[in-house]
Amino acid sequence: MMKDRSGSIRRFEEIIDREVERHPHNQPLLEAFRPLILTRNRLLEELELEENPPFQIDEIRFQGGVPAIEQHPLLLESDPWEDLVRSLIPAFQKGFPDLKEDLDRLEKALSEGVLALSDYFTGNRDGQQNLLSAWGGTLSIAAPRIGFILNSASRIVLEKRALKIAERIQGLKWEKGYCPICGSFPSLAVIGEKIGERRLHCSRCGHLWRFSRVVCPYCEYEGQEGMDFFLIEERPQEAAFTCDSCQRYLVTLYRVSDLHDRDLDVSALGLTHIDVIMQEKNFAPMTVTDWNVF
Ligand SMILES: [Zn+2]
Ligand SMILES: [Zn+2]
Fold it and tell me: Do the bridges between strand 248-256 and strand 188-192 make them parallel or antiparallel, or are there none, so unpaired?
């Protein structure tokens, strides 16, 4: 068991090393996220979650576009939020030295038990924003920084549950550009070398799903005109899909054959030069991630 665990950490080390070789200009960003990615994957393996109530969704509603999270709670009050956040703090300390004082204050607040963390994770979007501002004020930490840390914890729980749910929804039809599990828009698309289908990757829960190549995932526009494919010269695998109808872009790995050697969050970190170019062209990302807003 221990051997397997260190094996998978080594695999992630190698994936990040390869991405640094591919995109040396993005080395600082990749190195900043390295401890977080390694810790996240270690916690993902160690974590054991209660399934209460047992997973259940209405297949008709699901196939009509209502994601799993809107039908079944995926973040529970009983999940080990404090342990997860505490376990992530050393990774943030290592990768993001600028956060040091913020992390010290957060750790102190956790010890004093003044943050009801589960309120954040089980709350709706507005509730979460309100809590982040309130906690930001009490702890003197910028709200987005607390969000960055807390959302890294929810990613682990969501990914753990997403892996199980993926098996349950396998045979069901899903024709939406947002994630069938957590409802977020994709952070990256992948087009395979042989089959040529497009798959969308969700950075909030780690899920990957198939989606039409001729429809915009964000606004569902479908047409001959108004959608484009922006390619980087001399790097045929790196591209961005753009839609004039909603002015959004989606970074796309084009004709990849080595998907098993990749981690799509690591790939997205290596491709931020495309985010810069697309945002200079006044396109907005389909989803905001911890790394694509400049
Ligand atoms: Zn998702
Ligand atoms: Zn669109």
Answer: parallel
